[in-house]
Amino acid sequence: MRFFFPDSQDQVDPMFDFVTEEHPVHRIRQRDDRYAHEVLQHRPFDGLLISKSIVDGHGARTSARYTAGARNRLYRERARRFFRLDEVHRDVLIMGDCGAFTYFNEEEPPYSVAEVLDFYEYCGLDWGVAPDHIVFGFVRDGDPIPDEMISEWERRLDITLNNARLFLDEVSRRNCDIVPIGVAHGWSADSYAQSVSDLQDLGYVKIAMGGMVPLRSNDIVSSLEASSGVRKPETELHLLGITRVDEMRRFAQHGVTSFDSTSPFRQAFKDDTDNYYTLDSTYVAIKVPQVDGNASLKRQIKAGKVDQRAAILAERSCLEGLRAYDAGELPVEQALQRVLDYEDLVGVKKTREAEYLRTLSARPWKDCGCGICEEAGIEVIMFRGSERNKRRGFHNLAVFRDRISRNGFHSLQTTGEHT
Amino acid sequence: MTVSDQAVELRLPALAITQSPGRVLYQFAVDGKLLDDFATVSRIRRDDESAVQGYQRPESLQHITAIRKYIESDAPMIPNGIVIAFDDRVRFEPSVKSDTYSVPGEIVIPVDVSEAPELRPGWIVDGQQRTAAIRDANVSQFPIPVTAFITANEEEQREQFILVNSTKPLPRSLIYELIPGTTGMLPPSLARRKISAELLDLLNWDSESPFHWRIQTPTNPEGVIKDNSILRMLDNSIIEGYLYNFRDPVDGTGDLEAMATVVNDYWTAVSLVFPGDWNSTPRKSRLVHGAGIVAMGFLMDAMCDRLRDENRLNVDGFLAEVSLIADSCAWSSGEWELASGTKRKWNDFQNTSKDIQILANHVLAAYRNSRRTR
Ligand SMILES: [Zn+2]
């Protein structure tokens, strides 16, 4: 089972100073910063997924996360060198797609097949996904079929299938050595199976299952089951955007050999409670917003409702308290109290006292050997600014990788990093 | 001075300067760490009836940090003083009798730190960030000059506040032209740009450079290429391109000579391939316009990588490469035939990042394609 990590240009600055909250004056983003595979003890993924929409953006929606300069360099150096996977991590597979979720609202995919293949070629990718259009909706066996939706769903399936055909033609016309992947979409188990069958007829041996993010695990399994009826033995399936580690065994039984997801990373700073992973549990991170970076606090200071000086002092006392606790110089209750005092001043809707106490008492970062926690200590558990949040995200990736192997999938490539 | 319920008086040597009839300024030095004890920036706020009681501006933490680091550096000097408006609890006691405009004496400031900040006698009219930086700095003391005036009249205080705070910031171009001659600490945002500003300077002054006297700066108004376009082009390469290789990641300095050599070699080739377009003005030629300069800068980086590998990183090497795209360019007449199948009139590129990217994509694609078919 291969795990692909979707790139969103997330890195950490190894020189960031947690106490002064400063980067080196002359730091250059990305080039001086480090990716997850450069700071973790073990590489947390088998592959990277690069989306055209993240690199190039499209239309009025600028989903692009790349500056013009970074984009040009990506094309110039190609992905392997750009992501610094050209020396010790050469076995990492790099896969490209269009980022269909960024344009699902639009009539049609914003990129032509030729443009997409240009992108894959510029980046020098190993695997390339044909441009697809997501079908949003799923009908279970026996449920009523919403007739008004069917024509739109069929239209999107047609676009996807037609693109898949054109994409294969273009790949062979250009004679590229990229491995083409077709995307199966559907609005029911049977229509997914039909897509798989159609793509196989076109000649695809790698098929990505798209649009499954909102589906329940059972619906995913039923679709995979239906597809098993038509799937050729050599066909390999990839699940786009699916994390569910506990289900991986069931998925694998139906031909799934790879998947991708950002959720272990994003939960670190998007989720309400499950911010910090351990092998068997999750913890909430301690919110210590920056006086200078918290929008609502800034508004209150501007309005004269909160004294800026008092806020700065409370923030400092909170940070110092947490560090003192980590060093064994302050009892947990006192460190927690400082957090709660600051919480009071910032004005939160609901206190997290109990969850914070659980996190602080357990000190999960103390026993973690991911490569981040040893360096960052208690800073990794603070919900505060991207340097800490992304470190926690990287830590989660490391734990996620361990969860996958614990589930019996030992095929994760763990060798090669230190050779 | 320690916290005490007891009000004390702070006496400091001062000079009273009569500037115009009835308008007296007091100049003195005080340890910046004490400023908070008798002056405030937040005195002005909404009162219980929600009427505006003055004006408050939150501290800019980034700015404060920059000043603080400077104060913590080896030999800091801040010549411009803090301006404080005192109410009439503060008084001046002359030490000599004099009828000149300048009289030495002592300024006497009542200090009671147990009082609420808004009741303190002084209001910092100018120097809020410096005051905060001194307060936060890891130094035991930092004397700072103060210019003060005494008035019971709050309108007068506000008037000064507005006057002081409505001066125009320096134009960016002037700042960039001043940077290369500046030693010592610069604020981070400027420190990061120092290297490109220095490089620009070098290009403009070097008689061997195709940019010789052609970059417009405050002291070289005859230049035709905007300094800002050059800075963007150089910054792009220092950050994402070939010039990054000549940068010292620790202190952010760079091998300027080596950088200038590459830049000059490339643009010499550009000027030889497009002589008419190069020796023109931005209005008549998009090559020397911001869009052309920045887009062609990206092409420089693309060519450098290849030429270095082939050991041809010199004017001749660039000349051969730039010639490859000559037919795909319409700098000063005709139309650009873009890959998407669309056409654009020669001058239909503005100095926006979107247009620059379209133009950059075009020249980069032209370069890539010509390499492919060669
Ligand atoms: Zn960890």
UniProtKB/TrEMBL annotation, chain A:
Q: Which domain of life is it from?
A: Bacteria
Against Gene3D superfamilies, the record matches this protein to: Queuine tRNA-ribosyltransferase-like
**Biological process according to GO:** tRNA modification
Quote the protein name from its UniProt record.
tRNA-guanine family transglycosylase
UniProtKB/TrEMBL annotation, chain B:
Return the InterPro entries for the record: DGQHR-contain_dom (IPR017601), DNA_S_mod_DndB (IPR017642)
| Pfam (any one) | DndB
What is the official name of this protein in its record?
Answer: DGQHR domain-containing protein
Q: Which residues form a coiled coil?
A: none
Q: Which organism is it from?
A: Ilumatobacter fluminis
